[in-house]
Design goal:
The protein is α/β, with parallel strands linked by helices. It contains 13 helices and 16 strands. Helix 12 packs across helix 13.
Length: 432
């Protein structure tokens, strides 16, 4: 079968927030066609690869991506046409070289990534393999624990609720991925009832989580704990808690400004704030507990909590091997959040996962707040055996499509499938 790329074709589509994003179709000489769409973040780190936007205020308030699409259909298509789709690394490197900048500012990471993913999917189809097996080989059989963001704050709730951006449930005590998703859905609906009973709003944020007005950053955890018990499950045994404060968003002039609680904290005080919560609740993961450039604070955080829970850097590392390497050398965390569009190619993303895993760190694959229905990251999580996948609440089509794909993969694997469960994390789940 001729797996050479005939051409690639890009178009502008809409993401889950109604903003433009890039979709690409890859056409192989053998007649196979595959498509991929890329997401967009709202809470973005300043060190991420460049998401190329048009800036024309007359169209989509400047958020159009026609220039990125033009780059796909022009220089990128010309560069990679004739290349073999199974040579993923060679194709990605060719696009990186064509761009010629350290952050993909010329062509746009959104343009490059859409091509990268479409090529991988086309190659998988051509070889007759499911995407997760094509990317991960025959031993890609372990399903991840879903990290479900069921209560939103910060920028995802338009700063109307908690300061912390994401409160996640982690159903690690389930027997398989299907049951873990079932538990997550039940807790989600129970939380809705709890919120209604307390007079809270049940409107949802970008990632499907509820966004109530609360009096503290701890109150959402208490509400979630109540929801867990109301469906007959046990916090710390069946379901754990994970937090993503997105601390960069409320870090100003060397202080962490907790608007909800009318407090200003130093890095050391913020560490103790997190430590107190981690000791009271069944935490397994704390993501972005401090700001993206607060390296000294992260060192203190890891010394205080690194032996207890998985400390994940998102804005801190932005899926970039150079920043991850620095983090490993300075021993400031023990986990990396993996977002394809932070770095811009599949090859670089896989290198980031590999570096983290070789260091004994966790690697948690993640969606973005502006998503498409593309389920690539579900297959990639299984392929790379990262053990946990963060892709929003069990609500909204663009979120549940990733969970649905995990269930399809589990079904396809049959008896060969296993579930990461309590072994998913960089640190053992504590008895609680």
């Amino acid at each position: 079968m001729d797996t050479r790329i005939k051409t690639v074709y890009g178009r502008q589509i809409l993401d889950s927030r109604g903003n433009p994003t890039v979709e690409v179709e890859c056409f192989l000489e053998c007649g196979i066609t595959a498509r991929a769409g890329v997401p967009s973040g709202a809470s973005t780190g300043s060190h991420e690869a460049v998401e190329l936007r048009d800036g024309d205020k007359k169209r989509f308030f400047g958020k159009g991506v026609l220039n990125a699409v033009k780059n796909v259909n022009g220089p990128v298509a010309e560069k990679i046409s004739g290349m073999d789709a199974v040579n993923q690394g060679e194709i990605d490197l060719a696009m990186i070289s064509l761009d010629g900048t350290p952050n993909k500012a010329n062509l746009g990471a959104n343009a490059i990534l859409a091509v990268s993913l479409a090529v991988a999917r086309a190659a998988a189809i051509a070889t007759g393999l499911p995407l997760f097996h094509y990317l991960g080989g025959a031993n890609a059989t372990r399903l991840p624990v879903p990290m479900m963001n069921i209560l939103n704050g910060g920028v995802h709730a338009n700063w109307q609720g908690a300061d912390f951006q994401e409160y996640m449930i982690v159903p690690y005590g389930a027997d398989n991925v299907r049951q873990s998703i079932e538990w997550g859905s039940e807790v989600y609906h129970a939380l809705k009832s709890v919120l209604k009973a307390k007079g809270h709003s049940v409107g949802v944020g970008d990632e499907g989580g509820f966004a109530p007005e609360v009096s503290s950053n701890e109150e959402p955890i208490e509400l979630i704990m109540q929801a867990i018990t109301e469906v007959g499950l046990t916090p710390g045994k069946d379901i754990g808690i994970a937090l993503d404060p997105a601390s960069t968003e409320f870090f100003k002039d060397g202080r962490y400004l907790l608007r909800t609680e009318n407090r200003e904290l130093t890095s050391e005080e913020m560490v103790e704030y997190h430590a107190a919560l981690a000791e009271r609740y069944p935490y397994v993961v704390l993501e972005d507990g401090l700001a993206e450039d607060d390296w000294a604070g992260w060192k203190i955080l890891n010394e205080r909590l690194g032996a207890m829970i998985e400390l994940v850097g998102d804005d801190l590392f932005v899926t970039n091997v150079r920043r991850i390497e620095r983090g490993i050398k300075e021993d400031i965390a023990n986990g990396v959040l993996i977002k394809l569009n932070q770095i811009g190619t599949l090859t670089e993303t896989m290198a980031a996962v590999r570096m983290a895993r070789l260091a004994g760190w966790g690697a948690m694959v993640s969606h973005r707040s502006g998503e498409t229905v593309d389920s690539f990251i579900a297959d990639m999580t299984v392929a790379l055996d990262t053990g946990h996948l963060k892709t929003g609440a069990p609500a909204r089509g663009e979120r549940v499509e990733k969970y649905n794909q995990l269930m399809r993969i589990e079904e396809q694997l049959g008896d060969a499938a296993s579930f990461a469960g309590k072994n998913a994390f960089a640190r053992p789940v504590r008895s609680f």
